[in-house]
Amino acid sequence: MKTRFTLLLLFLFSVHAFAQDILVSGTVVGAEDDIPIPGVNVIVKGTTRGVSTDFDGNYSINVNKGEILEFSSLGFKTVEIQIQNQTIVNVSLEPDIATLDEVVVVGYGTQKKRDLTGSIATIDAQEIEKTPTANVMQSLQGKVSGVQIVAAGAPGNSPTVRIRGLGTFGGATNVLFVVDGAFYDDIDFLNTKDIKSVNVLKDASSSAIYGVRAANGVVIIETKKGRKNAKPQIEFDSYTGVQRAQNVVKMANAEQFVTMAQESGSAPDAQFVENAMQRYGRSRINPNVPNVNTDWYEEIMRDGIIQNHSISATGGGENVAYSVGTNYFSQEGILDMKNEYERFNIRGKVEADLTDRIKVGVNSIFSNATKYEPDNAAWFRAYFAVPIMPVIDELNTEASPTRFANAQNLGYRGTQNPFPNLAYNNNLVKSRKILSNIFVELDLIKDKLKFKTSYSHNFSAFEERYVNLPYTLGNNVEIMSSIRRENNTFSNQYWDNTLTFKDTFDDHDITLMAGHSFRDEASNEFRATGQDITGIQLETSWFLDFADPESFNNNVRERGRRFYGLSFFGRLAYSFKNRYLLYGTVRYEKSTRFTKDPSGVFPSIGVGWVVSDEDFFKDNGIFDFFKLRAGWGQLGNDKVTASSGANTIDLVTAAFGDQQFSGITSTSVFTDNVWELVEEMNFGLNLTTLNRRLSMDADYFIRDTKNAIFPINIPVVNVTLNQNAGTIQNKGLELNLTWSDKISEDFSYSIGANFTSIKNKATHIDNEQGYIDSGSAEFRQRTIIGEPLLAFYGLERIGVYQNPDQVAADPFAANHPVANLQPGDLIYKDQNGDGFINADDRVVLGSFLPTFTYGGNIGMSYKNFDFSLSFSGQGGNSILNRKRGEVIFTNDTNMDADLAVNRWHGEGTSNSYPSSAGLRKGWNQQLSDFWIEDGDFFRIQNIQLAYTIPSESFVKNMPETRIYFTAERPLTLFNYNGFSPEVSNGVDRQTYPVPAVYTLGINFKI
Amino acid sequence: MKNIKVLFVLSAMAISLLLASCTQQFDTQQGQLNTDDLDYTNSDGMIAPLLGAYNVFATRGWEEPLLLSVRGDDVNAGGLGDQQPFANTDLYAYDKGYWMYNALWNGHYSDMIDLNTAIVQINRYKEFLPESELPRANQYIAEIKVLRAWLQFNVARVWENVFIYETNTPNDEIEANGVSSKAEIMQRISDLMDEAIPDLPAVRPNERQDLPGAVTRYTAYAIKALANLELQNYQGVADATGAIINSGKFMLYSDFYQLFKKPGELSDENLLEMQYSDFNSETGDTFYHLYAPYGPQNWTPSRENASSGWGFYEPSKKFIKFMLDRNETVRLETSVLFTDRGIAELEADGYTGFPNFVKNTTRDGDRINDYARAMFASGKHYLPSTQLTDGRNNYGAGKNHIVIRYAEILLMYAEALTQGASGSGLSAVQAVNLLRQRANMPALSSVTLDGVMDEKFAELALEWGIRYYDMIRLDKYGELSYDGRTFTAANEYLPYPQAQVDALPLGEESTN
């Protein structure tokens, strides 16, 4: 069976017929999987004679004794074998992962890694598949320098991804995902098993070709495709496991809580405890404590099952390659309510050569997902619910349908019990997403000039239904049934055309690409809320038709948007003598999103120098490869408010004599904005040394977001407008090290490590105040020039008053008579030295953005076993423990055990925590570093142990079988007093904790 | 090869075609209504900005009325536990960084801008109006100016020297005028009311057919009187209040208790009223003010499932004792919700033999249970649970908020006369006796300034800080130094909010 490669070879090599005495034949297989490799070039070294392997990896060739056969194929290390008398030469090719001839994906094309001048990280399928997750980005956590992934705990939710820091204030930070050419903000619909590679375009010179969409970073994802002339391979992969909450916050138990309540000196609090004892009896162990000890976190959590099953077939014939598959994923949440995620995917990708110059392809992914969202308020309520109240209180006869306990029955202000949230909420989001793409590729000049036109349509439909079941809880708490319905559809179409020219002559290697792209992005959002649903007990009547028609009054809204975008772009990649590299792109954009200035140009340039190819550097004995590179580029962020304020009109109502009248309001203040402009300089180097076993990549970047949109409060008119009014800078260093070695045929290992440091700050703010306030007044976050965005801003705590003399000696005691300072209150630093502690003494207390992140992995394989371990961590970030901080709103509720145990309760007991009475005083409740905690963590990210049973080991036709055990996030070490240090915005009030996952999986390949 | 050329040409054509068609799509924006899209030639739409103005006026943050009035000796902040700087403000320990100060400032000033923009909108209609319809446009503008005047009045009372905003681009005003003194502002309000009065209908607000309860000529007179009272221009007060009294249109609502409940909405006593409603429907849209801060934290309502409140607004013991000492009946019952704990406190202070309404259950059957934060709650902001619309549970849901009522007009008039102004018609004591009569209090034969102020305390306690601003106007710091507080002249005005000092040319403030 002749392959197209043979044809190609015939083209390239003229065949001379000499008398060759030995007919050598054999099979070429991959060293990793023993699968035959078709299309391997088998060439007699130094001649033009050659063949290529057929469909089954077989070849045969006539050779003279003593000649050398060279086996080469893209993606594999070349093997040379000298022929003496052998007639059968079977070869297994090692995959060539580390080679710098590897091809990487760049915008609208590919490039040899060796020629890269920018910073692109590629993560292949093998790495991705180790993580049991629904979302591919989660599997990148800790693996890529410069990329911060903050995991989302709730099933089906996407992690927060930040590439090279936070470059926008209020705009969306969504990375641009380019999935087989189509643009996405979210890739929750992709099955990780279907992904061939994830390519993170980190620096501006790499991503500038995506113009106005590129500012938050670009991630190019390729899905798996078939190979021509490949035997069909059927792969079945399945894993099942359990998720368990880690590092559960230990709450104060009933006894500790009662102690705190008594020490607070508050009579009502003592009364509430008394009420609880009257209602529920006294503990037999300690008669001063009610006979209830509820651990609310224990009550609201459960273990969740996670499972994933995929089946796929790939292969190809002479002219066609295909890859088809289906996948089912399901994940339960660890919050004990209807909280789960389920996804079913169907996928197909077919490419065909119509002629030797025309290629067509179709790619389609359909994803059908059902998500029951958690009621996150339960996380917060479980924190503050008092332990002296049970979940169910049979005495609460007014509560129905379930007799949940109500803290108001004990005298507390709120109902506290999180169970009504869990039991009476049902939040369903059905999302159906389709990606479909068709392309035609024409070879206009064989191997030189190629034209490709590609049309993609991605369509997403979200059916959302939020049901509040009716209930009463006694004490006048009555909730009426209601249903909120949302139907949101997004229809995005892209038409891309590219013309690519490639040529090599003399010392020149050039690639030129010119393209055009048209985007049409439309959305329609519909929302209606109905109340008082008839037949609410039955899910079959959870439709708005059963709602009280009057309840729709002013509760229905619809919104539609349609944006068009038009772009022209070009790319030049040029290499001279294989060592002087030049790379440049330019993109012209026009977008209807912006009315003020709808068009712009985004250029970029990169240069590189492969020093190790210079004569003076060759044979230096240290470096096998050494490249210096630099790049500059501009990117846009169009995910910002295009205009702000109101030249638009709002409909409002007013009441006159109990009649409703509709009127309008408008303010005359508005701005039209332009996109944020990111400008970045990147300097990097790549080197390999120690016989190619150690490789290192390093990058330093300065990334400025100009025209950053800030919410500018215009003081005079007191309107806050989003305006292009500042500059944000992210500056950092990225380092990747990889060491790999093979000690024997049976044992090889690799070690990788990465490190990133990032400094984020606002460098310019164009408003009167010189700062921007965010967060609520009690929990202020302020953006100040020279400081990180949204920094926590409050008083600096320097200790705790230990005795009355210390209080009396302090001028604050006299200057703040109302505060009535006592031992056990916090001492603040008087920053301006005026003797008063007030708003003027506030300073930056920390930022939720880590200043450094790191990760690493160790991989080993011994015979049929392989083992991998990865870890990750971060430091320099702070978390606002708002669970604690909300004592400012309600001070008689529960708290975590750390706070209860380590409180100040006498001279010398604590110099950091206030007393129980102090916790209830406004003086101590002001935002200070008492509430801001260290967010550093170290985590064992993933451990995988696998055993592979080669095919046909025991019986004929037995598939290759791999059994694997995975522990995802089995251990996290941190000091923060919360479940998880992963809080995407740094304010932890009701963050869904990220569980550990343990799975067992099996994989068959036929 | 030929095929390929054809294909190439075809794609090139397709691209150029598409480019041509694309360009049209770059001209429009879907899904947005711009101000320029309104048809200003259709005068039917002219009322829309006015209705928007009333929406703006009535949309008040819960903290605004609370902060305006908490410093008076009639009311306290309730206990601690939540919003402690609010409680400190009640004790005259101010915190310029406290969010409520900024929210009050912002809430008032941004609404003034919105009202000014509504005037701009009406003026755009006005350009196309026939002569005959001009008075309607002028009336609408005058109404909005009256609403704006009330907001301007409040900020001047709270901060003394503030900005005047009369356009929707006040940058220029700030640049030209800087801050104006309280006296300048009050004079300006008075002058603006003189301008507005001829454009406004000479009817009682509840007589307005188009918008019952909206602003009329007498509302403007009332605000003029308030401004002149601040100026201590007592003749001006007497003239403005006299105009209202002598119109003969206003009457005290006979049932003092119900005046503050649903029956008293749009009564003949009300001159300016924020109107709220759920339109008597169990479900659907509502236009509410958040009354919860005024409510007791724990109660057993007569109508089940009615929600209780937060306990942020507690009538002072000083006020209750003052009322008990005067043998007040309906005015005390209307002003205060008692708890057993509160009554026990009064007993501990030596009060016994309470009238029968001093108990923890209101005449409508709502029982106020003891709660941690406070001992009493405001009765004037209380809506009996039985008056709630079925299915609506919010505290005070849908109750109107009376801003200016005829009783205040009578008392301002009486004070002006005792301050030496000359009135036309009623005498000071007659005016006071009208109120006493409704309150079942014996008529007086004569009245002094102090007598009028006592009457005002009894009649208008808990309403909008009237008491506090009277006391600072008359320098009666002793009255404000009660229950352990010490009031000095330095405490009269709040410090500018820190956020405003950072942004506006307000000058240096003392650190406090």
Description of the structure:
The complex is a heterodimer of chains A (1006) and B (512). Chain A has 1006 residues and is mainly beta. In chain A, 9% of the residues lie in helices and 49% in strands. In chain A, the strands form twelve sheets. Chain A has a 22-stranded antiparallel beta barrel. In chain A, strands 10-15-16-13-14 form a five-stranded mixed beta sheet. Chain B is globular and about 105 Å long. Chain B is 46% helix and 5% strand. In chain B, the strands form four sheets. Chain B has a two-stranded antiparallel ribbon. A two-stranded antiparallel ribbon of chain B has the order 2-8. Chain B is mainly alpha-helical and 512 residues long. Chain B has helices at residues 2-25, 47-58, 63-69, 84-90, 99-126, 134-159, 171-177, 182-196, 217-230, 234-247, 256-259, 317-325, 330-335, 340-348, 406-418, 428-438, 449-460, 466-473, 477-480, 498-503, and strands at residues 75-76, 270-274, 299-300, 314-315, 336-338, 367-368, 376-378, 401-405.
